[in-house]
What we know:
CATH class of the largest domain: Alpha Beta
Helix content: 25-40%
Strand content: 25-35%
CATH topology of the largest domain: Rossmann fold
Number of domains: 2
Mean pLDDT: 85
Number of strands: 15
Strand order of the largest sheet: 2-1-3-4-5
Largest sheet: 5 strands, parallel
Amino acid sequence: xxxxxxxxxxxxASEILATHIRKLPFLELIATTTNAFEALTxxxxxxxxxxxxxxxxxxxxxxxxxxxxxxxxKVILTxxxxxxxxxxxxxxxIDYLLKPISFERFYKAVQKAELLFHPPVPVxxxxxxxxxxxxxxxxxxxxxxxxxxxxxxxxxxxxxxYIEGLKNxxxxxxxxxxxxxxxxxxEMELYLPKSRFYRVxxxxxxxxxKIRMIDGNSIFIKENIIPVGETYREEFFKVIxxxx
Length: 244
C-alpha cells in the first residue's frame, strides 16, 4: 500500500485527486490539504510515501516544497501550467499531471509510482532475455520480453510513442499499452532506428514523428510532457531542425 496525500490550495482540486486515489486498491489516502506546511510536516514525520503536489501555491510553492522535503517522499506534480514541467523533472518528480486531471492520465502516473515502490522481480534464468532477437536492418518491429518467462510481445516501431527508463528496466509506451521489460535505456537506444527515435533525457527516448509540440524544453506527445535534458538539448534541436 502506497500512502498518499493530495496538496492543492484549491480544495476542489485536491478532492478530485482524492476521488481518483480511492479508486485504486494499492493507494491509501492519508489526507487532503490546502496547507503546504501541513503536508510538509506529515512528510517529515514519515507518514507519507507519495505526494500529489500543486506547483503554484501561496506561501510555499511546489518547487520550494520539493527542495525542503528532499528524498523523504515521491512526488507527482499537478498544475494548470505546462511551462513548469521542466522544473519538476529536474527535481526527479515521478510525473507531471496537467489539470483538469482525467482518471486515465492519473492512472498512468501512479503506475510509474507503483513500479518505483514495488519493482517487478526478474526471473533468474537464462531465458529471461529482454529481446527475443536483435532487430535486423529492414525490419519495422521487435519482440520485447513480457512479464512472464516465455512471453514476448511484438511491438511495431510505428506504435511506439516514447520509452522511459526506470533503474534497470524500461517502460515502452504505445497508444494502447505500456510494456515493461528488463533492459536499460542505453541498450534500447542501440536497438532502435536512429532516424526515428532520439534520446532527449537521461530517462527518456522519444519517437520523433509522434511529437505534437515542443515548447521550450518540454516535448508534448499526446497528453504526456517529456523534458529535454541539458546534456541532450543541443543535439536534439539540431536533429529537429534537420528533420524533413
